Amino acid sequence: MNNPQTHQKESFIQHAKHVEHDIEQKVIHVQQNALHRFPFLFVGLSTFGAVAVFYGFEKIIDRTPFLADKPLAILLSGFLILVLTGALYRKLN
What we know:
Radius of gyration: 23 Å
Oligomer: single chain
Strand content: under 5%
Mean pLDDT: 85
Number of strands: 0
Helix content: over 70%
Protein backbone atom coordinates (compact mmCIF):
# COMPACT_ATOMS: atom_id res chain seq x y z
CA MET A 1 0.00 0.00 0.00
CA ASN A 2 2.46 2.59 -1.22
CA ASN A 3 0.70 5.88 -1.42
CA PRO A 4 2.32 8.22 -4.01
CA GLN A 5 1.82 11.20 -1.69
CA THR A 6 3.60 9.40 1.16
CA HIS A 7 6.48 8.52 -1.17
CA GLN A 8 6.62 12.12 -2.38
CA LYS A 9 6.67 13.44 1.21
CA GLU A 10 9.44 11.04 2.16
CA SER A 11 11.53 12.02 -0.84
CA PHE A 12 10.92 15.71 -0.06
CA ILE A 13 12.03 15.15 3.54
CA GLN A 14 15.09 13.24 2.38
CA HIS A 15 15.90 16.00 -0.09
CA ALA A 16 15.51 18.62 2.64
CA LYS A 17 17.87 16.64 4.87
CA HIS A 18 20.47 16.48 2.10
CA VAL A 19 20.19 20.23 1.47
CA GLU A 20 20.49 20.90 5.20
CA HIS A 21 23.60 18.72 5.39
CA ASP A 22 25.22 20.49 2.41
CA ILE A 23 24.53 23.94 3.86
CA GLU A 24 25.81 22.83 7.25
CA GLN A 25 29.09 21.63 5.75
CA LYS A 26 29.60 24.96 3.96
CA VAL A 27 28.76 27.00 7.05
CA ILE A 28 31.08 24.94 9.27
CA HIS A 29 33.98 25.61 6.89
CA VAL A 30 33.34 29.38 6.86
CA GLN A 31 32.77 29.41 10.62
CA GLN A 32 36.04 27.64 11.34
CA ASN A 33 37.96 29.98 9.04
CA ALA A 34 36.48 33.05 10.75
CA LEU A 35 37.18 31.63 14.20
CA HIS A 36 40.82 30.92 13.33
CA ARG A 37 41.32 34.34 11.74
CA PHE A 38 39.70 36.42 14.48
CA PRO A 39 39.87 34.50 17.78
CA PHE A 40 40.02 37.61 19.97
CA LEU A 41 36.99 39.09 18.26
CA PHE A 42 34.92 35.99 19.06
CA VAL A 43 36.20 35.83 22.62
CA GLY A 44 35.41 39.52 23.07
CA LEU A 45 31.91 39.19 21.62
CA SER A 46 31.18 36.10 23.72
CA THR A 47 32.39 37.84 26.86
CA PHE A 48 30.33 40.93 26.10
CA GLY A 49 27.24 38.78 25.53
CA ALA A 50 27.64 36.96 28.85
CA VAL A 51 28.30 40.16 30.79
CA ALA A 52 25.32 41.87 29.13
CA VAL A 53 23.02 39.02 30.17
CA PHE A 54 24.20 39.11 33.78
CA TYR A 55 23.97 42.91 33.89
CA GLY A 56 20.47 42.75 32.43
CA PHE A 57 19.42 40.27 35.12
CA GLU A 58 20.89 42.55 37.76
CA LYS A 59 18.92 45.53 36.45
CA ILE A 60 15.69 43.50 36.36
CA ILE A 61 16.26 42.34 39.94
CA ASP A 62 16.96 45.93 41.02
CA ARG A 63 13.61 47.04 39.57
CA THR A 64 11.64 44.23 41.22
CA PRO A 65 10.65 45.59 44.64
CA PHE A 66 10.41 42.22 46.38
CA LEU A 67 13.82 41.06 45.18
CA ALA A 68 15.62 44.39 45.47
CA ASP A 69 14.81 44.62 49.17
CA LYS A 70 15.56 40.98 50.06
CA PRO A 71 18.94 39.66 48.88
CA LEU A 72 18.38 36.46 50.87
CA ALA A 73 15.28 35.79 48.73
CA ILE A 74 17.43 36.18 45.60
CA LEU A 75 19.99 33.74 46.96
CA LEU A 76 17.40 31.15 48.01
CA SER A 77 15.45 31.41 44.77
CA GLY A 78 18.70 30.99 42.83
CA PHE A 79 19.57 27.84 44.76
CA LEU A 80 16.03 26.52 44.31
CA ILE A 81 16.14 27.12 40.56
CA LEU A 82 19.52 25.37 40.32
CA VAL A 83 18.25 22.36 42.30
CA LEU A 84 15.08 22.11 40.20
CA THR A 85 16.89 22.39 36.87
CA GLY A 86 19.48 19.84 38.05
CA ALA A 87 16.72 17.41 39.03
CA LEU A 88 15.00 17.96 35.68
CA TYR A 89 18.28 17.40 33.85
CA ARG A 90 18.85 14.12 35.69
CA LYS A 91 15.32 12.94 34.86
CA LEU A 92 15.65 13.79 31.18
CA ASN A 93 19.12 12.29 30.84
